[in-house]
Design brief:
An 8-stranded parallel barrel has the order 1-2-3-6-7-8-9-10, surrounded by 4 helices. The protein has a two-stranded antiparallel ribbon with strand order 4-5. Helix 5 (145-159) packs parallel to helix 6 (183-200), helix 10 (288-296) runs parallel beside helix 11 and helix 14 (361-375) runs antiparallel to helix 15. The protein has helices at 2-22, 51-64, 84-103, 120-123, 145-159, 183-200, 214-223, 231-244, 255-260, 288-296, 314-324, 331-341, 346-356, 361-375, 392-417, 423-440, 449-458, 461-467, 476-487, 490-507, and strands at 29-34, 68-71, 107-112, 116-118, 137-139, 167-171, 205-209, 249-252, 267-270, 302-307. It has 20 helices and 10 strands. 53% of the residues lie in helices and 9% in strands. It is globular and about 65 Å long. The chain folds into 2 domains: 25-333, TIM Barrel (Alpha-Beta Barrel); 445-510, no CATH class. It is α/β, with parallel strands linked by helices. Residues 1-25 have low confidence and may be disordered.
Length: 510
Amino acid sequence: MKVLIRLAACLAALLSTKLHAAQPAKEPIIGMYVHTHWPYNYPYAARTWGLEDWRGYLTGLKELGYNTVLFWPLVETMPRHLTPSDEAHLQKISQVIDFARNELNLRFYLVLCPNLVADDAVAGQAEFEHRHFFHSDLRIDPRNKAAVDEMLARRAEALRPLAKADGVVIIDSDPGGYPGSTNREFVDLLVAHRQMLDTLRPGIELVYWMHAGWPAYSRFYATANFKRGTESEFREVLGLLKEKNPEPWSLANNLPAATSLGLQERVVNFRYGQIEQEPQFPFTNFWEEKAFKGGADRAPRGIVGNAQSHILQLPNTLAFARGARGQTLDEGDFAVFAEKLVPGHGTLIAQAWRALASKDPADQDAMASKLAAIETTHLKGGDLQGLIFRDPSRFVTDLRMQLTVAAAYARLLQADRQKAPLLKPLADFLAAVRPWQERTGYQNQWKWPDLKRILADLNQPETNAVLEPELLAQTPFGRVKEGYAHKEKQTTRLIEAMTAVIKRLSEEGK
């Protein structure tokens, strides 16, 4: 009987593959990656979204022209015995997939790391929404068949409620890799995932996300020195994957390498960081030209952008979509878009977005005052209010608080350029940024290069210890993991350290 069941499953997979190959090509992908690595507050972190939040956000994406969603369900952090919060999360995402595919006709893909599982003893102590990734992960040696089989069994169980997804995207690095591991072992992992996915639902598309390269991260873990993979390594892995041919499958990125092997029609571009970098301290970007050009950089199968704090990155979300759709983009488009978020205030909101990027503290203060004047009025949401979770008051308050932070930061940079005393502008910046950090709850790495440079120049022990922590692990692999874990809570520790520095220097009269 087991043989018959297995034969039936193989026949179903073959039929599904043939049907997949025979179908006419769908419209090119215009996708948004919903990134979920870091635990922070609702509604800024996608981990915290409820079903109605998802409905509003996806409906808004659809209106802007997106037709595909990628989502990282973070099964890598889930213990073997799922917590109630893990189970609730998976059931919610199952409903999200149904809504996306059946009501909006959006394609929905899941994202996985290739060889990570949860450290059960750690992961089980935290609810899903609050679990820190690099405090609770273990890397699996792809040469250890028993460990790989156990990982795949755990993944199959977690992914079962999500098997209606169109595909599964597996990245080759960041995080992924193992000291000394090879491209051939990575391809074996992809093929093993193909076989596992066929047990859930034949026909789930497997997407290889070419990022830094599996050998590159394997060397990183072996030496603690990072260098991106070589083009010969990317061509090697594609050749091996082409030979295995785990249909249905496709590729993300590196169109030149794919073209050299006749695989170009399988490629979608992931234009990472064109809407928002990650990890990023939650802050609205206004990169109209960068986001627009990123969206326009399509491969044969389409284009995907990414964000971390999605409801803060609306101007770039618009710009990316317009680039992907071959439309134009001018200043008026942002006002028209904002008017559909909060009717009657579109022009003001568009001006506020632009002011965030201006580096002019007087302009930023003026815009913050204008937003404060409408903040307590009865604001109504417009046709695209789902993108702000039907809460225009919170949206306007967020903008006003960010402008206050931006103005204080601009004054700190001015003082630094003028070689003026930094204690007061640093204290003013801290007073502005602390309420915003507490509102968002973000803890991870804070990548504001000028801030890091200013604090390094101050050369104070409290901030030095946060920016350059002493790593105690004895092996390169251990130091990489320890470094990642330190960064999980860098922002809160840095704010505490700046507070201590300001207090001590003030008491010393400096």
